[in-house]
Write a structure and sequence with these properties.
Number of domains: 2
Radius of gyration: 27 Å
Strand content: under 5%
Shape: elongated
Oligomer: single chain
């Protein structure tokens, strides 16, 4: 547990060492998070700078509390700041930045879809139909298909979907292959 006191931040040199240690400890984690969320290195640096300011204000305040994990605490602040930054960016984006071309509704190639679903077998087709077309509850599906319980039915559904995914993967298919 890290208990902060103002003696640790009393001189410029101590503050500089404190911030460099935090930077080395937490910036890579924050940068990875921002990158995964679609941000750039510059945005990660900005977010981290703001994070450090908030953290410093918290640490320097008279009612500073003990912080168990500085890295996790800084990441939490950075996540909140990134979400605020992201939401603000969406609100301020001019309408002419959006693509206004009208795209006709894409229709799935039903025959192609059925063909790949059928490769999993009749029982899988019936099971998937019960789940996704008939919207039967898991317990009902388990009873209907003779499974010992809802968990077994869920596992069977997963295995059926994996059979279809494997077939699609083996044939190197992608989304565009299923659109007419």
């Amino acid at each position: 547990m890290i208990a902060m006191n103002n003696n640790r931040l009393s001189t410029v040199e101590l503050r500089e060492a404190f911030f460099m240690a935090l930077y080395k400890k937490a910036f890579p984690v924050v940068a990875r998070y921002v990158a995964r969320m679609g941000g750039s290195l510059e945005e990660a640096q900005d977010i981290f700078q703001d994070t450090l300011v908030i953290y410093y204000e918290k640490v320097a305040s008279a009612q500073s509390e003990s912080i168990v994990n500085e890295k996790a605490y800084l990441l939490g602040i950075a996540k909140r700041l990134w979400l605020q930054h992201y939401k603000a960016g969406l609100k301020n984006q001019p309408l002419n930045d959006f693509d206004t071309e009208v795209v006709p509704d894409e229709q799935p190639a039903t025959n192609k879809l059925l063909h790949y679903l059928e490769t999993a077998g009749k029982k899988c087709m019936d099971l998937l139909k019960a789940y996704y077309y008939d919207y039967l509850p898991v317990g009902d599906v388990a009873t209907l298909f003779g499974y010992s319980g809802p968990h077994s039915a869920t596992v069977a559904k997963y295995k059926c979907l994996e059979k279809v995914r494997e077939t699609v993967k083996q044939n190197s298919l992608n989304y565009a292959d299923f659109i007419e």
